[in-house]
Amino acid sequence: xxxxxxxxxxxxxxxxxMGLSGGWAAETxxxxxxxxxxxxxxxxxxxxxxxxxxxxxxxxxxKEGSLEYAVKEKKKYPYLVDDAGAWIERKxxxxxxxxxxxxxxxxxxxxxxxxxxxxxxxxxxxxGNAIDAPVMILKCCIGNRSLAxxxxxxxxxRFVEGGKVYAGYxxxxxxxxxxxxxxxxxxxxxxxxxxxKPIQWWAGLQYDADVGDAKKALAELDKHYPGxxxxxxxxxxxxxxxxxxxxxxxxxxxxxxxxxxxxSLRKDFNAPNAKFVLATIGEATKGMTGNTGKVxxxxxxxxxxxxxxxxxxGNVATVYSHPMAQGxxxxxxxxxxxxxxxxxxxxMGKAMADLxxxxx
Length: 360
What we know:
Elements lengths: L7 H10 L25 E8 L1 H4 L2 E2 L7 H6 L20 E7 L2 E8 L6 E2 L2 H11 L4 E6 L18 E3 L2 E3 L8 E3 L27 H15 L1 H4 L6 E9 L8 H5 L1 H15 L6 E5 L10 H12 L14 E4 L18 H22 L1
Parallel strand pairs: 1-6, 1-10, 3-6, 10-11, 11-12
Antiparallel strand pairs: 2-5, 3-4, 7-8, 8-9
């Protein structure tokens, strides 16, 4: 495992941007040294959450736009391959993936494989170089999920807006007509499918599923990181927002829900000092109005450098992904362009390395 000093350039760049800039240089990430981790130290766990772009929709194999093409033809991300051009398997970073109760879908030392990819390869290499301890990248997410409904964190309360009650944690459906005399105390009607059966979904169900998957993996640590006996949840990564941008009420409450989400994760994993790095949705530009603009405002507001939430200073960072999106958008999965996922992943990994450096 490379010592933290080997990531000095990485952290310097992150300090200059605090995660709010694009155009990270792949050359700043060194190839791994091939050594296994020091297993006397606790595994440093980083949990990846969000919706489809965090799940990963980048193409690994193919022509222009694939990771294979970017590495082998354009000579980008050289830390992913050895001198012979073969994908490098790290011996100090474990990649584990669950999806809404299914899995593990991946459970291996970090190495590029065919199919689809997200930010995990870039994040894993950056953190593997920066941290002198075993690292686990634990991805627990699924696509098409909103923060205001599916991922709503525990403790979120109902509210009334536009004559409707909007669901609090564990409520269903997502909204219903408000009785003016009762306000948010108006009880919801039965929520039934076409066959008259109760619909088995409620506010926060996906939050519970994703947190539950992560806890399950960590409860069986040795099955997911052979030889490991202890761990620390060191950080969270989050890339999400497209679905909330499709609903004006959800978008308007995005910032409030995001703050609650960060705090709830730290509580649920008993990790009050865990760092949190998120990326904005690529189509969102600063100064934009409308629903997408509201979601972006929430993303930027929680960055510790913004000063809006003093408790997030030095432990929350936002990556402004628009400069890295290559004209694509989250709903279109950036056209499957692997370079977008790699560039956003590098920026997120470096932002996390910077936050961890500040902690030491």
